[in-house]
Amino acid sequence: MRIGSFMAVLPRAVAKAAIWSLALLLPLGGAVASPDIQHWKTGNGGRVYFVAAPQLPMVDVRVVFDAGSARDGELPGLASMTNGLLDAAAGKLDEEAIAERLEGLGAQLGSAALRDMAMVSLRTLSAPEYLDPALEIMSAILARPGFPEKIFQRERKQMLIGLQAEQQSPSAIARKAFYRAIYGEHPYAIPGSGTEESLQAMQRSDLARFHERYYVAANGVVAIVGDLSRQQAERLAERLMTGLPEGEPAPPLPKVKPLARAVERKIPFPSSQTHILVGQPGMTRTDPDYLPLYVGNHILGGSGFGSRIMAEIREKRGLAYSAYSFFRPMRRKGPFQIGLQTRNDKADEAQRVLRETLQGFIEQGPTAAELEAAKKNITGGFPLRIDSNRDILEYIAMIGFYNLPLDYLESFNRRVEAVTLEQIRDAFRRRVDPKRMATVTVGGGE
Amino acid sequence: MQHAKLLPALLLWALFTAAPALAQVHEFRLDNGLKVLVKEDHRAPVVVSQIWYKVGSSYEHDGITGVSHVLEHMMFKGTARHGPGEFSRIIAENGGEENAFTGRDYTAYFQQLERSRLEVSFEMEADRMRNLLLPEEEFAREVKVVMEERRMRTEDRPESLTYEQLNAAAFVNSPYHHPIIGWMEDLESLEIADLAAWYRRWYAPNNATLVVVGDVEPRQVRELAEKHFGPIPPSELKPPKPRAEIRQRGERRVVVRAPAELPYLLMGYKVPVLKTAAEEWEPYALEVLAGVLDGGDSARLARNLVRKRQLAASAGAGYNLYSMRQDLFLLDGTPARGHSAAELEKALREEIERLKREPVSSAELARIKAQVVAGKTYEQDSIFYQAMQMGTLETVGLGWQRMDEYSDRVLAITAEQLQKVARKYLVDERLTVARLEPLPLENGNGGKGQGGEQHEDR
Questions:
Q1: What is the mean pLDDT of residues B187-210?
Q2: Close Cβ partners of A255 (under 8 Å, ≥ 6 residues apart)
Q3: Which of A103, A108, A319 to mutate against chain B (most B CBs within 10 Å)?
């Protein structure tokens, strides 16, 4: 529903969560106790991550598969279509029965396909009369989706409309062009929402095949946070995964090649603003330079007000409402992206300021005072990042999916504290090349 | 099937009585009139602090629209004690998150911090409640930022433009007529003196509510509040004029032509809200009605218009019972390929007529109520959300206690009451319809997608 998107309120700045993706949420650890993450495998090889949270009578569970759009192959949109149609029929239940039963229990089912991962999430009350029937439906959705032909045809039309909606949004146009520019032939270039041709070419059987290959236990991770004992959590994970074959993990994705040279894409669009995206392939989730790049970017443009890009673009010049930079760490190198949007006649000036800011940061690196402030912000904010079941669920799903060590959260503050000015300067010089950036602009007006 | 559906309804009561005891809200008022609400939540060592002012776009008049929101931006531009941007720097250094937001009926500032840092937030909020400097050169830049914000949120989004036009047509003299961000023309002529006057008029302890939720002791919060906010003298407040919307005398229709790919339809019926309702149950009935239409995948719009008849690519309904003034019960949608906005409008009207004609089934009602009951537990997972609810209710003048009443009131609504409010309020005399008619996106972007052609440049 769009009504909710008309912002009943206007925030002073885009919430950071809107810029940072799920995979970018920042784990921090320090004086405050980190959640006790328990880990085991289901009988058929699914990896499970569990945090007991007995304070509220509810359970959050998420199952993540390596089944994102990077696995689309020749059919862009396949991962998204498959994920979106899991609840269109499952076992003996049709889509109406699934929706009615879950909503009648007050349960909330969600699903999403990103580039690396595809997931299904459930939030439910923990009393068995709610939890048990909700889980039964979720496990059927995971293991026995029917992908009925009629619903497939309907959903194809929906996705085609979705493509049209993207075409009227300068920010969506820019994002797609940006990924294409920095990833070229790599699967990360594939638009998760598909293309007109691929959606027209797709068959119901493609979905079934995709599901059979990737929605398997060895390719999945279960994350659970809630009012359960370890024993109950073990039973829950078994029930969810038991219908899935063991299968095999998805094969490794190809490595991302660096851009050979600077790339510029100018896309005219009848908007009052020009959307500008600048960047290149960045870093992986397990990157050896992860911490210096992360802490450095916090100072460059990752922390909103006070970061260099925000200061130069918005606070000093009033050029944009939102201006930022981020690294999106993924299985392979996710993007390093700088972005803003400004009135058309200021686009050149804004681009020049962005370049100078980036260049200056790479040449000189942060100041000692900036690094000190960034460390205080990152480490001091640790308790905020894990103050709800929902936050903890996101973290453990991420830790599990990317195979990060179990003490990742606990050790994070310590590792942030250890980052030096020289490490940041060195990492940015080696890893960010301002001469080989992709620049995408969408706008220019009538 | 029928039995299976009834089951959760039967379980409702059992769960409701077994739900965890709701933490008590501590309420007190300082001598200068500042209202303070504290709710303990000891799950994590964190605290959220929000200060809510009774001012927002619905307090504004023609010519200065958007002034509340621009002033909110300027609240970060310094006092004698703290230079521009320093609030943000200090909060960041304390590991905090901060932001602010402006609505029609409120303006609020918040910080989220580790529990021991609460005083940092109080010290700065107390300072900027009275000592804002409003430097001219900062204003000159910030108002440009707000214009960029307006371009991003509204000018370049055809559906947002349509929503803005719907409100402008539906409300003639009510201040809900104008957008929160203000008209571009008004932003262009806004002056620092307008902001200064607005600040002096509304930023006072007796026009504010401080809401604190988290791992805190109410006694300690009170001491800190006394220490920092206590010395601020109250202002003499002149309440805004009533400006109750004049009676609508027939359906209104608006067409918006803008570059777009997809048509879009919005319908708004003028309905009472808790603050204005003569019958207190009516807003709760309208709330449930919105749920019947759009409370999940099993609700009517998704089921009938999107899935069964496939007339709509998307369709929704929305209603805010906590608005301060008479508001709209909204329906919206995008037609499916091969269908027109007119067909979609007809189908939405048929759904409205059905609500008047037939009582909502007990199974549907039970599903909505089950979601409300479960939602009461889920919402406790977010201390920010809890603070938002208390702040909103207090600031629009309903009182935070309504938060705890909500589920009881919703559970008490009957099918007969739903039919009554549908018949009384969802009628043409109260309706405004806005339709987006796409103009071609001919400049670049390779033209229309209808032809099935794929363009490299998207």
A1: 98
A2: A332, A333
A3: A103
Other residues' Cβ atoms within 10 Å of the Cβ of residue A137: 22
* CB < 8 Å to A6, chain B: 160, 163
Substitution target from A7, A10, A199 for chain B, most B beta carbons within 10 A: A10
Cα–Cα distance, B267 to B432 (Å, whole number): 6
Our measurement of the distance from residue A363's CA atom to the centroid of its chain's CA atoms, rounded to an integer in Å, reads 30
**pLDDT for res A445:** 83
pLDDT, residue A34, reads: 86
**Longest CA span, chain A:** 63
Distance between CA atoms of B396 and B419, rounded to whole angstroms?
A: 28
**Residues in chain A closer than 8 A to B373 (CB atoms):** 106
CA distance A424 to A429: 8
Q: How high is the ipTM of this complex? A: 0.93
Which of A58, A37, A50 lies closest to A234 in space, CA to CA?
Answer: A50
Overall average pLDDT of the A267-295 stretch: 98
Say yes or no to pLDDT of A8 above 70. Answer: no
CB-count exposure of residue B80 (10 Å: 0-12, 13-18, 19+): exposed
Q: What is the pTM of this model?
A: 0.93
- Whole-number Å distance between alpha carbons of A336 and A322: 17
Instruction: Inspect the interface and report whether the beta carbons of B449 and A32 lie closer than 8 Å.
Output: no
Furthest C-alpha separation in chain B: 69
Q: Across the interface, which of B113, B313, B318 has its CB nearest the CB of A4?
A: B318
Q: What is the CA radius of gyration of chain B?
A: 24
Residues near A268 by Cβ (< 8 Å), separated by ≥ 6? A443, A444, B443, B444, B445
A407 contact partners, CB below 8 Å, separation of at least 6: none
A81-112 residue pLDDT tens = 999 999 999 999 999 999 999 999 999 999 99
Please say if B93 is a catalytic residue.
Answer: no
Distance from CA of A168 to the nearest CA of B (A): 5
Within 8 A of A389 by CB-CB distance, chain B residues are 381
Instruction: Identify the CA nearest to B305 among candidates B264, B334, B278.
Output: B334
Tell me the chain B residues in contact with residue A277 when contact means C-beta distances shorter than 8 Å: none
